[in-house]
Amino acid sequence: MHQEKRYSTMTEHELRQEIGNLQEQARKAEQMGMVNEFAVLERKVQMAKAYLIDPDEYKPGELYEIEGNPGQYFKIDYLNGVFAWGYRLKGDGHEEALPISLLKKLK
């Protein structure tokens, strides 16, 4: 049985290979109209990408734009590994966690 490695234990090279594989699977799923499968694979890509980023570049209290959601902003309360916990501006006020790969620095 094939045991999948956790992203947190992969090397940068392994992560980049995994991202490429996932993007290829996502492309095929999209072509075949498999919307749910595509969404799951896109989330996996974002998770893997998060492990290629230094969490220290993200600061609690700062605002970031949410990747793929222009005009949607996220305020970080705290970081836990590669997840930023906080709130969406104009959101429902519920705390949520986003992988840091989804957060774009404001210019």
Question: How would you describe the overall organization of this protein?
Answer:
The chain is an alpha+beta fold and 107 residues long. The protein has two helices and five strands; from the N terminus they run ααβββββ. It has a five-stranded antiparallel β-sheet with strand order 4-3-2-1-5. The mean pLDDT is 94. Helix content is 34%, strand content 23%. α1 (12-31) packs antiparallel against α2. β1 (63-66) and β2 (73-80) form a beta hairpin.
Essential attributes:
alpha+beta; 5-stranded antiparallel β-sheet; 107 residues
Question: What's the short story on this structure?
Answer:
By secondary structure, the chain is an alpha+beta fold. 34% of the residues lie in helices and 23% in strands. Helix 1 (12-31) runs antiparallel to helix 2.
